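Example noted here:
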Amino acid sequence: MALGPWARVYLTPDINTLKFATKGLVAMTLSLYLAMEMQLDRPYWAVISAVFLQIRPQSGLVIEKGFCQIGGTVIGGGVGILIMALSMQMPAMALMLLMVWIFICATSSALTRNFNLTYGFAMGAATAILVVVLTIVNDNSSQGVFDIAVARVSEIVLGAACATLISMLLWPDRVRNIIYNHANTVIDQTFQALVMHLDTSVSMHDARQQIMSALGQALTLNNDSSAVIYEGPHGPGRARAAYLLSQRALSMMAEMQTYGRLVRERPALASEAFEEALKDIRDTMERVRSRQTYSERKREINSLRRRIQKAELQRHGTPLARRMAQGLMMLLGYASVMVEAHHAINDAENTQLKAPRLSRHRDYMPALTIGIRSSLLFAIGAIIYVSTQWGSGVLMMVMPVIFGTMFASFPSPTTMLKNVMKGGAVGAIAAFVFGNILLAQAPHEYLMLVMIFGAPLFLGLMALNNLPVLAHGLGFCIIYTILTMPSNSMAFDISSFMDRTLAIALGLTILYTVFRIVPSPNALVLRRRVIRAITDDMDQLWERSCNNSRERAADWFNGRMVERVQRLANFDSQLPEEDRYLLDLGMTGLNLGHVILANYRRVTSLDDTPPTRAALKQWQTALAHAYQACAWGDFDERFTDASQALLKQLRGAGEMEEEQIELVEGMIKRLDITLHRFARMSSSRDQRDIEGVLQPPS
């Protein structure tokens, strides 16, 4: 009988889980010991700081998270001092300024893809809350605010430093190993997607699911690669290789999606030689996936490229068929670079590659929603505090802001929060038993404190290392530590314990309620914003292709597109299976960007006269707007007019051979087919979307 996630964690724990829990416990006990030796007011904040750094325990990720945590804490402390300097005698004004700062932090956190940076923004907001609110509660003097700021920063920085040190010294785990495995997965899944797209016996649904999986892996590889730069002198080289692999995987996915549709919907285009070439590509890519060494993979791909070139598919058939053959060679070129980049990750000492990180798509509407939601959370807590002068109300203001900022960008934040609350409920029970009963009867010695306090914490850390129960473990560890409050002067006051428990429970309940009341913007609105953003970027590609290399412009476009495609895929999952087309629409937008860049370079390298450039620019602008029109269920005839004008100009200029012009004509024919298809698919969906069939995501 298969064990559930909890049974696997506690009945059959693997060695990595036990090592992780041991490392975490050592880091937390060390931070607690140093905080108590330094006579800090609230040593448990050092422990909480160390808890957060245990998520993703690889050394590079811990170092990056530590920098973000320390930076956010220092900045938050400075902002707290500044707020009190401006409104020392006006507590209401201080709380209003603090709400503005929380809005800035929460909004900024939603505009980054790096979770460690998101956590840094959360700590910036939380530290400012602690400085301002504790100053108002305790002292309300200039010296008091400075002392509180120094104490809070010292506690959090101490916890981060201890967690980072233990991560590097005790059973160190390297990000580069994760990056290498991620890269291997990206290659495997992308090549499998290519095989499935070029096989007419595979349904487009299965091929679409595979490309979505590969897309997510490419984004994960790109995101995790930022931390590998902290692991030795070759770390930056590994990061660049990982970025290049992510970029070329996205480019390959953009191309394969379109050709997969064509080989299914236009079987007349495939001659016998073309069918043999497709089978050769599928068989070779399956062999490449099974090969383990770089030399074997490279040899297979190079041999395949020579066979496809020898078949001379680009010299036979209609212009569209010849353009498809040219696209197959492009796909193999991407595959070759991906294998090279994968090798460079493992052999960064001898292989140097250059590639930028994926650019970031920023949609300010959902980001502002997250900022407003976090500000509302704090405002509710502040109103309750001002009305009641509740001493424990600071926890009611801090915890919702931290969790609300961290979880806001997750696909299902309410589910994460619900699991945190479940883990927190168990943590509260453990804190009552171990922190207020057993510790109260034990000798007041550090060793006894660690033995009793650390036992439940070890179990919570075991959950923290397993993704299915991570949120439960996080809630347990945080709530257990806050309610136990290990320090030099533990009071063991049941009434105080119940007071803090009520404050935390009320704060998390308010957080959950606000998440439900203030949802993300409607999915139909966000979908339209994504399409407009894709159109705008396709318009900008003209300037970027003029001012930069094609590779740099493509990398910029890839980065901004990857999250848009994922969002469209999420919207797609809410539609009935037979009506799903948004993922294909997003991948088509990614492909059209590459078409614009390729056509620009192909034409201008042969005919760079002003009339041709003007016709080409008009055509690219028409293509961008035709893409937007087909997403709304219409076909923009201006694209047909601009295409005819471009072909007429190319033939009239006489700078390009007829064979080259026919390739451009084949590409235009393919685009015309694609745009008409999506116009038909979109028109059948728009009315039902407007009527509310497409519900907003939770």
In short: Residues 690-698 have pLDDT under 50 and may be disordered. Residues 658-690 form the longest helix (33 residues).
